[in-house]
Amino acid sequence: MENTPAASPCRVGLFVTCLVDLFRPTVGFAAVKLLEDAGCTVVVPQQTCCGQPAYNSGDKARAKQVARQVIAAFADVDYVVAPSGSCGGMLHEHYPELFADEPETALAAQHLAKRSHELISFLVDVRGMKRVDARFEGAVTYHDSCSGLRELGVKQQPRQLLRSVEGLSIRELPGAETCCGFGGTFCVKYPAISDRMVTDKAEDIRRSGAGTLLAGDMGCLLNMAGKLSRLGVPVAVRHVAEVLADMADRPSIGAPDRK
Amino acid sequence: MQSTSHAFKDNAQRALHDPRLQRAMENLRHGFQERRRVAAAALPEFEQLRDIARDIKNHTLANLDWYLERYEEKVLASGGHVHWCRTAAEARETILAICRSAGARTVTKGKSMIAEEIALNDFLEEKGIEPVETDLGEYIIQLRREPPSHIIAPAVHLNQDDVEDTFRRSHTDLPADRSLGEARELCDEARTILRSKFLAADVGITGANFLIAETGSSIIVTNEGNGDLTQTLPKVHVVLASLEKVVPTLEDVSTILRLLARSATGQEFSSYTTVSTGPRRPGDLDGPQEYHVVLLDNGRSAMLGTEFHEMLRCIRCSACMNHCPVYSAVGGHAYGWVYPGPMGAVLTPGLIGIDEAGHLPNASTFCGRCESVCPMKIPLPKMMRHWRERQVERGLGPAAARWGLGAWAFLASRPALYGLAAKLGAGVLGRLGRRKGRFAALPLAGGWTGVRDMPAPEGRTFRDQWAERNRR
Ligand code: SF4
């Protein structure tokens, strides 16, 4: 392995995220591989969800109920890493705010927040990863998911690692920083507006000319993959970790399994 | 203005299917955003200025009563009058009384969102006084009897041919065969008509971008210079402003002004920045004989000290809506009241109530772009979430959604049970969806599959596979 991890060995608790767990376990295994390549020991504590559906619906009590259990489950790992900017942002940004009115939990929430990261930025910024050992033939384009981009500053890290993938070229996505229209429950509460947003996004993806769309968040990926296939736009959709971990041999998101 | 915020969904639906509106919004998407980006990038201290501006306003809001009193003292000392108005109705009556005592038949108006907020035009018309909007955009929508759809570009929902149409229908005393195909010709026609109004007006009403406590001055920024004529030509000048517009010093205003135009239109500075302080003094060449300030609260003081306090830092630059994907999809009218976009989604429920405006803070993906461009660093998504919390506390919102969230929370706080449910769900969906890789329709998921496919799960959950791997 060409990476010389700058940081010392550490124990990472993988926060799988409910969408990866349910829809795309490959991303979880890709995350494990990348973390192990970066010199981490990976554990997967008992877990469910970060609590965002309740939090963003304004239901603080239920969000706390779920969050408490995350805080407890990940109490004894060095880092908590999620293959998602949205869930990573929830842990890192919003847990302290959620418990601000509950001093006895606030400290633990802050402690968790400080150790929580989105996967790709963790690899690059914390573990000093500079390149990956992977091959992917073709042009990809990359959508910057909102929470990762604006709450956690995930922007250059995935591009830096993608550039080291043999055979891969990047075509920048016009409007890469514009929301895809997923927004958690937004996409089902306001389907018509969400549809307009994801239709515009699909058009930008088509214009990029890339054969594959990558992003770092399952929610956005499901939304965009679902729209691209509904529109019949022949672009494969994958989580960026699959490509970086050299695990892009599975059918892409929403594609038939021909095995 | 009568609110239709409760009908946001229907309004949005209509807007999405209005090809003319969509064409007009296309220009917005590509104009404002790029210009703001270039302007902000060209000023090395732009980010630092945002912090300073936020601090100035925070300090002012923390001492709002004190600064308002200093401001009032200075206005009085310069020979002006200050009218404190708690409600829209009080403000309307106050302005009517001023107009009546000036014997006004015609009043000219500079652009003022507060005038929209108190529905001043309709009121004055009812009382037999003709209000004339002098900002070109406002003038156009006044002719069309429409509310503004944007806080600095009120007619942004219109295309040039819509304007031509409007002028032909309204200016019936002009030759029908005149040429109006060019933007220049439209401006010239409006200018000619407005000129006579400026001269006829007895009272000029302007808004204020800032009120300065140190000097008792008000400041407006415009690109057309119409505000200057509105406030200097008539006998009486009325400044209509809300409480939170006050800032301590002229120096503070200069700081914030460096952000305002850059954030709004990408200009370094607006074409006209006009300071007005009291009535004409002996020896002054121009200026009004009477100077009135109508200071409106209308629900703002009730926001002080609450989780919506920071909204009062807003300088109405419009950057948040210019960068909002929801606003650019549905336009400003869909929001149903005076203030659209992210700032409206926070402010409107504060001013007209969450029962009426409940959709607005919900119709957001929390993409956070508004906050990232807001010159005053207002945490708009966070405050939209606070409105949602208020709704939940009060048991508002559809019962089905509340039930769904309850069932979800029950499972999500029981990892073993949740794991089992996920395993079953992923297994069933995975098997069913395997051949196609996606679902075109799914029971209970119409909101999703109505407009896009649902990709099928791979089959077994991660946690199930991980447990098996670790047993080996
Ligand atoms: S909320 Fe911020 S971005 Fe929006 S109008 Fe107010 S100051 Fe401008």
Key structural traits:
heterodimer; A: alpha/beta; Rossmann fold; 2 domains; 4-stranded parallel beta sheet; globular; B: 472 residues; alpha/beta; 6-stranded parallel beta sheet; 22 helices; 51% helix; binds iron/sulfur cluster
Commentary on this structure:
The complex is a heterodimer of chains A (259) and B (472). Chain A has 2 domains: 10-125; 130-244, Rossmann fold (3-Layer(aba) Sandwich), CATH 3.40.50. The longest helix of chain A is centred in the last third of the chain and has 18 residues, at 191-208. Mean pLDDT of chain A is 95; it is low at 1-5. Chain A has helices at residues 18-23, 25-37, 52-56, 60-73, 85-98, 103-115, 119-126, 146-152, 156-163, 186-189, 191-208, 218-231, 240-244; strands spanning 10-14, 40-43, 79-82, 116-118, 135-142, 166-170, 212-215, 236-239. Chain A contains 13 helices and 8 strands. Helix content of chain A is 50%, strand content 14%. By secondary structure, chain B is an alpha/beta fold. Among the domains of chain B are: 43-301, NagB/RpiA/CoA transferase-like (Rossmann fold, 3-Layer(aba) Sandwich); 417-471, no CATH class. Chain B has helices at residues 8-16, 19-41, 46-62, 64-77, 88-101, 113-117, 120-126, 136-144, 160-170, 183-200, 226-232, 250-264, 319-322, 325-330, 341-352, 354-357, 369-373, 380-393, 399-412, 415-433, 446-449, 462-471; strands at 81-85, 106-109, 130-133, 203-206, 210-212, 217-222, 236-242, 246-247, 272-276, 290-296, 438-439, 454-455. In chain B, a hairpin with a 4-residue loop joins strand 5 (210-212) and strand 6. In chain B, helix 2 (19-41) crosses helix 12 and helix 3 packs across helix 12. The chains are: A alpha/beta (259), B alpha/beta (472). Chains A and B meet through helix 1, helix 2, helix 3, helix 4 and helix 8 of A and helix 1, helix 14, helix 17, helix 18 and helix 19 of B. Iron/sulfur cluster is lined by residues 314-320, 343, 374-376, 378 of chain B.
